[in-house]
Amino acid sequence: MALNVAQKLINEHLVSGEMTPGKEIALSIDQTLTQDATGTMVMLELEAMEIERAKTEASAQYVDHNVIQEDSKNPDDHLFLESAAKRFGLYFSRPGNGVSHPVHMQRLAIPGRTLLGSDSHTCANGCMGMLAMGAGGIDVAMAIAGEPYYVKMPEIWGVKLTGELPDWVGAKDIILEFLRRHDVKGGVGKIIEYHGPGLEQLSAMDRHVIANMGAELGATATVFPSDEEVKRFLKSQGREDDWYEITADQGATYDIEEEIDLSTLVPMIAKPSSPGNVVAISEVEGEEIYQSYVGSSANPGYSDFAIAADIVKGQQIASGVSFDINPTSRQMLTDLVENGHIASLLSSGARLHQAGCNGCIGMGQAPASGRNSLRTTPRNFPGRSGTREDSVFLCGPEVAAASALYGKITDPRTLDMKYPDVNEPDKPTVDFRLLEEPLTLEKAKATELHKGPNIASIPYMEPLPDNINVPVLLKVGDNFSTDEILAGGARVLPYRSNLPEISKFAFEILDENYYNRSMDIREKSGHAIVGGTNYGQGSSREHAALAPRYLGLKVVIVKDFARIHLQNLINFGILPLTFADPRDFDKLEQGDTLELKNVRKTIQDSKELKAVIQGKDKEIRVLHALSDRQVDIMLTGGLINWVKDRQSDKG
């Protein structure tokens, strides 16, 4: 049977299940990735599970999100992460070494491997011929412990690239065009596999840009073949021996097929406040901007910065514009310095920041209120920038640099210059010391965990009750994101290792009183949340499930869920349900009280439950899509309890 690349990767790692779309499968995991906004909880979970040492081929802990040290919380937690990496046998990337995704690509990514990361943009490493997926932190902890990862077998969506990109149109415009066509839930339940002659024009880092923002489509993963370009990239990093070819078999087919003719593309922009709100630049050209921002895991390559540098070289950015440059790795920054590109940027008036996620996650570089920010980042969800009432547009570096010069959104094709001829360095600066290697087992055992005052243990999670009688504390609409459930940024992320404190920020963007209202009834009854389609889109942060669970959330009823957040709800014992009839969404209001009876037995025997709206003489049918394994997890109150029960059963 002829297989495509995604099928080959899944088949090679299939532990159980069958490759039928919609069926649950278990996959062995070769590598894991954690970052400091999610990794603290993962390390605490490894400690709670009494894991001796990582059982993966390679697991890496990166410090890239919380690099601002305005007080002791972030540096204290970084010391904890460093000690945990040593204790459990992980690679450790220090603050300033760069964003996890491009650094992992440079140092550890290997074609043919599986990668699971507690960051939704882990899918970026699909550019290397890997099956790379984002997941909740506890799923990654389980993978580090040697357990398989469970996911429903996706459909494989083949996207054939033809033609050649015109000047001034880049890889970011390809993925923005795909988002324009299919919006933020178009990839749910799918792996997107790019193929075709158009690939020859795309560098490994160009493919990274496209794979990265597969997360914005809700896709399980994005896959590229491992071809001569991947070989070239690995050779440039001193790792040619890690390469081998993985391409689709002749005659391989896809569940869904689509084509993008690259020659027809124009510069694209996602308008506020969704990555799927994409239009051609002509629709917004001329709008004034306050900020233009180049960097992030969505445009992490050398050429992304070098093109911007060549556009502004010898010129001055517009008055009143903040031109923010966020290098994505120390290696990249060194090469840009050596080739004069940083000098060009600084001379134009740009502001240079340290290598890290920074403004992408709202950790610095927040825009002024009431002003437009133009960014090469992957997301523009409300408030994600760090400014509550923000107005963020997403674009490629060509648009960002051209717009910085004129102080308004500018089509780079109108510039009076030739398209910059930028080539990546043949011999980039390679320093293997930037990613500290795991200690030997003997030294690891002698390492003690360094716990600062901001570390708080995960509280006990009660098993699923048999009868649920709860008020609807919130009702939200479609595409409600994890950034809106629990924001990132400099105010919030320093508490990611302190669940009681970080819970105070839950849903604050929607309802500043949610915390107090939930705490008032937490012990008495708990509560429910009702939502529309694609609930929980965006980040993989498990705190978006953990914090509401801590505040008494027992059940979420929506039209449908985003993949990672659905699993996070299950992992922490929150019952995820969908409307049997989506029109019943209109029957529920904030303040209604829901009653579900005989829940424990019902979810074991049936996929359907009945929810009574008390005082309204109404009843609605709701469904669960839990596998037998997930039902067991739900009954115990979450994955931590489930693991402990299994360990007890083993004696």
TrEMBL record:
Ranges annotated as biased composition (Polar residues): 370-379
Aconitase/3-isopropylmalate dehydratase large subunit alpha/beta/alpha domain location: 8-407
Residue ranges, annotated region (Disordered): 367-389
Keyword field contains Endoplasmic reticulum: no
Gene Ontology molecular functions: 4 iron, 4 sulfur cluster binding; aconitate hydratase activity; metal ion binding
GO annotation, biological process: tricarboxylic acid cycle
Quaternary structure and partners: Monomer.
Protein name listed in UniProt: aconitate hydratase
Source organism: Salibacterium salarium
Higher taxonomy: Bacteria, Bacillati, Bacillota, Bacilli, Bacillales
